[in-house]
UniProtKB/TrEMBL annotation:
InterPro entries named in the record: MPN (IPR037518), RadC_JAB (IPR025657), RuvA_2-like (IPR010994), UPF0758 (IPR001405), UPF0758_CS (IPR020891), UPF0758_N (IPR046778)
Record's protein name: JAB domain-containing protein
Every MPN domain range: 102-224
Family: Belongs to the UPF0758 family.
NCBIfam families listed in its UniProt record: PRK00024.1, radc
Keyword Hydrolase: yes
Keywords: Hydrolase, Metal-binding, Metalloprotease, Protease, Zinc
CDD domains: MPN_DUF2466
One GO MF term attached to the UniProt entry: metallopeptidase activity
Superkingdom, natural source: Bacteria
Source organism of the structure: Zhongshania marina
């Protein structure tokens, strides 16, 4: 049955207008993005199939161009549209952080870090540079590779903080393994960065570890 033949309150678009986007399941949201199905399948049927094939919405959104376009019903045009949606979401979250103190909206901070780091297939170490009011000045990925295997230089973080006239920082990195638990190496580098910044009268407010849908705060655990 075509979606147009469904009861009005069950159609994804009408449901979104009546109840808001949060009321929709992943397949319904994806169906709105797809707009149309394929022969013998509605957009919702196709969306469910794609989510099952890729292992969920996050995996689909993080898929490479080759992997994405290999799926039936998808192609370069849909890949380009999806990447634009993802990037708009990242920029929206960044603007949200720039308009208010970071710690007045911890949820937005976590969402921003998830959007930036969750789907990285390699480990990325990034820094949020903040002003005196703890508003975001700049977000920058600085180091790549595992903390044990690739150097994370506190002096480079401090040098960039001086250039930006930052007063406080939050550092973050992802665990591509999907396990968010901080390692001993994570704790050691956190304390090295904290001590280096303290010499410049700057504060390290937190170190967040992102893995899958989870963000762990070392500050909340008393590890800074």
């Amino acid at each position: 049955m075509a979606i147009t033949d469904w009861p009005a309150d069950e159609r994804p678009r009408e449901k979104l207008l009546q109840r808001g986007a949060a009321a929709l399941a992943d397949a319904e949201l994806l169906a709105i993005f797809l707009r149309t199905g394929v022969t013998g399948k509605s957009a919702v049927d196709l969306a469910r199939e794609l989510l099952h094939e890729h292992g969920g919405l996050a995996a689909l959104m993080a898929a490479s161009r080759e992997r994405f376009c290999a799926s039936h019903g998808l192609g370069d045009a849909k890949f380009v549209q999806l990447q634009a949606v993802v990037e708009m979401s990242r920029r929206y979250l960044a603007e949200e952080l720039q308009q208010r103190p970071v710690f007045s909206s911890a949820a937005s901070t976590r969402q921003f870090l998830l959007a930036q780091l969750r789907q990285e297939v390699r480990e990325v170490f990034a820094v949020l540079y903040l002003d005196n009011q703890h508003q975001l000045l700049c977000y920058e990925p600085l180091f790549y590779g595992t903390i044990d295997g690739a150097a994370v230089y506190p002096r480079e973080i401090a040098r960039r903080a001086l250039e930006l006239h930052a007063a406080a920082l939050i550092v973050a990195h992802n665990h591509p393994s999907g396990v968010a638990e901080p390692s001993d190496a994570d704790i050691r580098i956190t304390r090295r960065i904290r001590d280096a910044l303290a010499l410049l009268d700057m504060r390290l407010l937190d170190h967040c570890v992102v893995a899958g849908p989870e963000v762990i705060s070392l500050a909340e655990r008393g590890l800074i």
